[in-house]
Amino acid sequence: MPPTKQPSISSSLSSPDSFATATESPLKDLNGAATDISSPIVDTEEAADKTYSKASQLPPELKQHCQIYLEENLYLITLNLLNSLLSSNRGSPDNPTYCAPPSQLSLLNTAVVHPKFTTRPREEGWSEVSAESLVYLRSLLSRFGPINSGFKQAFRFINTTRHGTPDSYYSDDPDFGGEDDGDGTYAQLKRGYHQDGLWRRGQDFFRVVGWAFNCSVLYPNRWRHWRHWLKFMLDVLEQDLHERQKLDEESGQTDYPMLRDSILATYIAQRSGRGAGGGLKWIMEAIFADGSVTASARFQEIWPKEHKENPKSIAKKRKRETVNIDKGNFGGYMDDESVSSSQTSEPPTPQKRRTNSGLGDPDFQALEPAYVESVPLRQRLFSLLSFLCHYLPRPPLDFSDLYQRFETTVKSLPLPIFTAFVNRRMCVLELESQISILLGILFLLMPSSALSPQKVDRRWQDSDGITVEILERCFLPYPANTIAIEDNAKLSVVLENMLQIMWCDGSEKFDEKLRIAVEKGISARETKVKKKKTSARGRMNAEDPEAEAHIVLEMSAKRLLALVDLIEADGEDAELTEVDPMDEDEDESEIEATFMTAMDDIEDEDEDEEEKHGNDKRYCVCRRKESGTMIACDNNACPYEWFHWKCVGLRSKPRGKWLCPDCSSPSRKKRM
After folding, report:
1. I need a labelling partner for 548 at 20 to 30 A (CA). Which of 119, 151, 395, 565 fits?
2. What is the three-class DSSP state of 576?
3. Where does the pLDDT of residue 464 fall: very low under 50, low under 70, confident under 90, or very high at 90 and above?
């Protein structure tokens, strides 16, 4: 194992933008270029060329009107006015469009997730405020970009333990004060209303992220709204990074001052300033928050009793009380409905991840859909951190420590969650980052007796690459470094995904050594886990807590062998296609299977055997499922549906009618 973590990237797969941010879409074409991965919002090159419109501040009168509407909870009226101003001019560089000030944008962002506009709307029409606010904020992001929109000033978190009293935050900002009616009551109302906002209650970005991810496990009713907020904020952070990087490079600033002043860098600095090493630890805990007792204690709800909902019966509109600012009575506008037991129901029972549900349950690896949905967002946040630390000369987090902490945390996850994080079909990281992380996890799981990649390729330490030879000789043939069944299952799953990535990339060809290495590794892992007793009688039973790991290890072994079959068939079909180029368009490879579909093929073989007794049709003499180049016999009475070319000795497409060896035999012709 190398002494320090370095980005382990294949030279054939790497690119100048190795640490570009993530994409929300997995690879669309298994046979396409490995670098054909776009950003979640726009392509990286398109982002560099995108020019945003300039934004103008609202006139003082309109600004004050909008602010009063917001304080009076007339959000829809405010949004209609702001949208009309935005759509009145399609935005040209010479004729800018109006944009709401930061103080109002912070309120609209809070409305996206605030309980009184989402799970507990207090009045008719309030449930529409969340969606309408998000639409307006996204429109600003698309037209003006994060810098021109003033999102950095609007979306800044305030921690009263570090900045003194809450009022100190607003006294420096003319948007939060200054406009008064002479006796200070209006400014007091404004400051008091903002104290209930996300940016003060949340304290810091990663605390809010941790609570949102806790909701993905415990409270799906809240996650339904938090996920939209997270997606928007990640879009803001990503576009902010790209735009600032572009401005720094255009101005020739090698120290990246604009990038250093990005929104994400500000969030990291706010957390990292509390102690050496505490920032990275806190950030990783937020990314992997899973609703456990520890995570729930560390990342608590933003608003009191936030998880409560309105009762099923429709609540009647209550009358507003008399406003008396001097006595602190804001007429119900400042009330937190979450603390009123008369307007809320009891919290729903937190959902739990299903693990060890039994050997007979085909859904034994299942995770709750909300948690699965959160995995790409967790990976995407890590990717943004990686992007920032990669480009800054003096990053806020050590780049090597960032990757090591991420890999170590993923390696220690429960098996079902681990499988979701390393699954290449779900992963939204750039391909190079996927390879780097998978290699880092492999090094954590490999035994000390494993062959070092440096002995296979002396340039490996310098090029920091992964090749077919290194995969076959240094990783595939080995078990895990412990006898734990879960560790060996994790190692097998990682090898599956690494093998898929290299095969789909297609830059290097596999040979006959691949099957030998895979079979050797499967046998070594089976032998290793047998050293661990599974029960008092020495055999596994359905109550064994490691029964799930046994099943995962067994299924992974079958998928690895199926994947080898597909790779070998793909190689043979490629050779046959080269003999007759005319058939390229007609007989394109039909191998479009992931390791899960390959596993389904294996499981379907038993069904085919049963169907043969009730059906005269059969499938090739090799009894494989459909893959590669095939041909059907022109004899309608032939018991076979189709044959693989290689199984019947064909190297090119025959001319005219073609009969299979069985139908073309003399004895068969007599019967025909």
Report:
1. 565
2. helix
3. low
- SS3 of 99, please? strand
Verdict on whether the full-model pTM lies above 0.90: no
Residue 569 has pLDDT above 70, yes or no: yes
Bridge partner residues of 640 (DSSP):
618
> What's the distance, CA 471 to chain centroid?
26
Contact 347, 356 (CB under 8 A): no
Residues 6+ apart with CB under 8 A from 12: 34, 465, 505, 507, 508
What are the tens digits of pLDDT across the range 505-562? 887 888 889 999 999 999 999 999 987 655 444 454 445 668 888 999 999 999 999 9
Question: Collapsing DSSP states into helix, strand and coil, what is residue 562?
Answer: helix
Beta partners for 630?
644
With tokens 């009309």, the residue in question is 84
Helix (H, G, I), strand (E, B) or coil at 285: helix
The residues that bridge with 618 in the sheet, in sequence order, are 640
- List all residues 6 or more positions away from 533 whose beta carbon is below 8 Å from its beta carbon: none
CA dihedral 241, 243, 249, 251 (to 10 degrees): -130
- Non-local (6+) Cβ contacts of 566 within 8 A are 503, 591, 593, 598, 627
At residue 10, does pLDDT exceed 60? no
Say how far residue 473 (Cα) sits from the centre of its chain.
31
- Interacting residues of 179 by C-beta distance below 8 A, sequence separation 6+: 64, 67, 186, 187
- Specify whether the CB–CB gap between 221 and 307 falls below 8 A: yes
- At residue 284, the pLDDT reads 95
* Structure tokens that stand for 656 in this block: 């005219």
Length of the chain counted residue by residue: 672
Measured distance CA(558)–CA(129) in Å, rounded: 51
Question: 């093998």: which residue's tokens?
Answer: 499
Token digits of residue 615: 């059906």
For domain 616-672, the CATH architecture is: 2-Layer Sandwich (3.30)
Return the number of other C-beta atoms located less than 10 Å from residue 82's C-beta.
25
Of the spans 428-437, 458-467, 627-636, which averages the highest pLDDT? 428-437
Q: What are the C-alpha distances in Å from 552 to residues 517, 548, 559? A: 20, 6, 10
**Which residue, 552, 555, 560, is CA-closest to 518?**
560
C-beta pairs of 34-40 under 8 Å, 24+ apart in sequence: 34/431, 34/504, 34/505, 34/507, 35/431, 37/430, 37/431, 39/238, 39/242, 40/234, 40/235, 40/238, 40/380, 40/428
Report in angstroms the alpha-carbon separations of 302 from 199, 233, 669.
10, 17, 81
Q: Mind giving me the DSSP string for 374-413?
A: HHHHHHHHHHHHHHHHHH-SS-SS-HHHHHHHHHHHHHTS
- Residue ranges per domain, the chain? 1-17+430-611, 52-156+158-201, 206-223+236-307+349-428, 616-672
Token pair in block for residue 290: 């899973």
Q: How far apart are CA 405 and CA 538, in angstroms?
A: 37
The one-letter amino acid at 539: R
